Amino acid sequence: MGSEQLIQSSSLTVDDFGSWTAAFDSMLNSWMPSWCATLLECVLVGVGLLLVYALLALFYILYERKVCAYFQCRLGPNRVGPWGLFQAFADMFKMLIKEIIELKHIDKFLFALAPYLVIIASMLCFAVLPWGNGLQIINFNIGIFFLLACSSIGVLGILLAGWSSNNKFTLVGALRSGSQMVSYELSVGLSILTMCCFAGTLDVAEIVNAQRDHWFIVSAHVPAIIAFLIYLVAGTAETNRGPFDLPEAESELTAGYHTEYSGIHFGFFYLAEYLNLFIVSGVAALMFFGGWLPFNIEGWDGFNHIMGYIPSVLWFLIKAFIISFVIIWFKWTFPRLRIDQLLKLEWKYLLPINLFNLVLMTVIILTGFHF
Amino acid sequence: MISLGIFGIEPVVFAIVALFTGIALVGLALWIAKLISPRSYNVQKGEAYECGIPTRGSSMTRFHVGYYLFAILFLMFDVETVFLFPWAVKMKELGMGAIACVAVFFAILVLGLVYAWRKGALEWK
Predict the structure, then answer these.
(1) What is the ipTM of this complex?
(2) A217, part of any domain
(3) Long-range contacts made by residues A9-13, C-beta under 8 angstroms, separation at least 24?
(4) Which of A21, A38, A42 to mutate against chain B (most B CBs within 10 Å)?
(5) How many folded domains does chain A comprise?
(6) How far apart are CA A101 and CA B8, in angstroms?
(7) pLDDT tens figures, A221-236
């Protein structure tokens, strides 16, 4: 019994990034003046964020290509490195050495501004996600609201890209993309609002901690499952993926809003798109599946104990990857929607269901009919 | 109480750091690309990427009014969702009185949707 408790407490300290960073902070402060330490920490966080962002986007490119390939009985990328592991790096390098074509007919300033907006939006959302116990960069007490707010900036970037390119394909692509993202943002916001009702907080860390005993998908049962399904559909549409990829329907619009972008300029939209896939999956994991908390079954102490050994970062990533897998699966299961079907789905089905779901959640909280 | 992020620094600072990281990512990658990518000039290269025939007229032109309609609907509903957030957080403490108030607000919201639906604003024409 004593040894067991010892193991448990040691595993907790190993996993508690808050104490690690605090120790690092005090170490730096003992070596240098505090403004210097703060500056160094900010630079470290920035560099770390940049590296993780880029690596994760590259991983996602490979992940999607591999999964798509297996859905179609292909092997996917398998030449560059073992199992094609370095394919995404090679692709990025290829994009870097491609010429950035100077166009005559564009609005130069807005054209250059658009990729910045798209990347900044996804970077800010990315920094809000809790990666582990105490490992969360932007820790606002309105975290999830901040995330929703930042994700809307991305739409602006896409609209600017389409408009400034001065091309009919990009204009139609951007408008479709804009109306789609804006419509489905409503559903994303409402399903998250429903879960925030249950959690009673907007703080990301507190939302995770509230799920220590049961994940929200279990403890809030029916409304949580409805909210999750709506979130999954709306999240897929938000990222312009799967059956909702009509903004970049190749057969009609070439590449949609980023048709005129070349080389690495196009790569930014590509990166942000994959990162948005991760963010959508990460938020789903956070709101419904306990974020970085391990998978526990009540009463199975041995099992729970083993699960506790898997680091929290890994748990968060596993959950996000599984949800991303489902979203990629959508792409190969459903045919592409038309714009009228798309808007009908959102405004006539998802939105009323979502409003009803909010009422249902309120009733369940009031009657205490939850775990 | 202001919640502190990692290193005990206020999260606003990190939000600004994340903002600059985003700018740095784009800026750095563009700079590297400018350094190592080839460049050549060709009159045709600067043309719009279309079917190969020269573009007729400007493309910054008028577009389908339906997009505006959905944008306005979105604006309405999104702002109203934002109003619901504070209530959602404090719902358990505020009790029945607040729920009654929100129910009225919610009813107006639903009425708005029903009105837009009946008027045919949700049809794509």
Answers:
(1) 0.86
(2) yes
(3) A11/A308, A11/A309
(4) A42
(5) 1
(6) 45
(7) 888 899 999 999 999 9
